[in-house]
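Treating backbone geometry as a discrete language has practical consequences that deserve illustration. The sequence in question and its structure tokens are set out directly beneath this paragraph.
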Amino acid sequence: MLLVWSLFRVSRGVSNIPGNLKSATSNIPSGKWLMYFGLLLASGVFFVFVAFTVFLPVIVIVPQKFALCFTVGCGFIIGSFFMLKGPKNQFLHMTSTERLPFTLGFIGSMVGTIYVSMVLHSYILSVFFAVIQVLALAYYCISYFPG
């Protein structure tokens, strides 16, 4: 009886340690969320690929198609990170003090790309906002690599 009580006490004490296995694995996404991450990331890469290979050569004629396809691709890529880290954690991360200027710049570049291509039909401004969007997306993706 004393042995059972002491094992119970030890196991209870181990589960209350701050760095236990349960807390260490709580940030690992499940298989379902990893599947969603992969699908959204693949969709985003596909849309960006189509924007650059199909619509970039004809951006002078139809800047709307390039801007829409490229912005949807960027949205899918950002959405994939929401699936990987969890929506609440990703939102809190993107709106943290050090990331807020980047987040506002990225969202502004997405809205600006759509606005200047769909409403103003401006080729030069579409390219300008698309370049800002590419730089913001590249910074965003690179910032997640460790080291």
